[in-house]
Amino acid sequence: MKILLVKLSSLGDVVHTLPVVQDIRAALPGAQIDWVVEKAFAPLLTRSMGLHRVIPCQIRRWRKSLFSAATRSEWRAFKAELQAKAYDAVIDLHGLTKSALVARLARLAPGGKRYAMANQTEGSGFEAPTRWVADVAIAMQPHTHAIQRGRMLAAQALGYTPASKPVFGLNFRSKVVLAPVFQSPDAIENIAFDIQPATVVFVHGTSRADKSWPIAHWAALGQQLIAAGYTVALVHGDAKELATSRAIAAALSPAAVVLWPLLPLDTLCDALAQCAGVVGVDSGVSHIAVALDLPHVQIYNFDTAWRTGPGEALDSTVQGRQTSVFAQPAPTVQSVWHAWQTVQGPELAL
């Protein structure tokens, strides 16, 4: 059986959809599973165990220059790759017009069908064309965690019952060496270093400013972690986030803080997997930490962890390995520090 998943973006949503691949593999061991995704997120999917083919697209960029020669050429190439194989099932897990277009362009095998959501769930985007294009539109419970929404849609489309616990199935390299932006004011930039096991990664970057945590809070938390014997690593995705990383680092002991370079998502996955844990805001990189089952504290300025963060969809929270902290206008340093102490477990205590 050949199955095409359509989940184009964003990073957090792509991570939340990873368990669908493992559910299908468990229920239909002979299935070949392909996935259409924005090119920026394709490297992460190379770490998804059992995924047969990743088909990258650049719809976000193409729609900014619809009539340029470059866009037309790239679109034709994408369409040819998409239609190179006929699918028994095309599942639109995204629910927007752009994903409906991709699902419609995909080629069906004889008897094949297109599946999509029939309705919006709380806090998610949904556009009517996804339902119109589908051969089968499946009604979803409105109050549903993002992970469970995709899992239940695929399960109902393909006729199986998923396991109670989601399995993200991320494969990672057990060893990676990075070249930091800097390790101390006196260090020469881009000296390669091994990631220390007692490293806690700060994921401060987010696409929405109202999800951010104050720089002073990050610095204070970093000081507490360093005093407890940890090294703090800071990640960034663009120049603005790098500036924030530098501001946090300036308030910390130079010998115990390192700024990681800008990393492709597959390498970032490898690097995170070697660390003691992650503290982060509601962002895609933070959700990768959840997928890797790292000790993790996720910071929320809004009461939305029930649908995107560690919650009922993740059995690991029962064991105290991952948690979210919510307060307005933002959680305190001490509440996040206390949460970190609860998730690290005795085996990680220094």
Helices, strands, pairings?
Blueprint: E1 2-6, H1 11-27, E2 32-38, H2 42-45, E3 53-57, H3 59-62, H4 69-82, E4 86-92, H5 97-105, E5 107-117, H6 129-133, E6 136-138, H7 146-158, E7 177-178, E8 193-194, E9 199-203, H8 215-227, E10 231-234, H9 239-250, E11 257-259, H10 265-273, E12 277-281, H11 284-291, E13 296-300, H12 305-308, E14 322-326, H13 333-344
Helix pairs in contact: 1-7, 1-11, 8-9, 8-13
Overview of the molecule:
The chain folds into two domains: 2-158, 3-Layer(aba) Sandwich (Rossmann fold), CATH 3.40.50.2000; 177-348, 3-Layer(aba) Sandwich (Rossmann fold). The model has no long low-confidence stretch (mean pLDDT 91). With 350 residues, the protein is an alpha/beta fold. It is globular, with a radius of gyration of 21 Å. It contains 13 helices and 14 strands. Helix 11 (284-291) links the parallel strand 12 and strand 13. A six-stranded parallel beta sheet has the order 3-2-1-4-5-6, with helices on both faces.
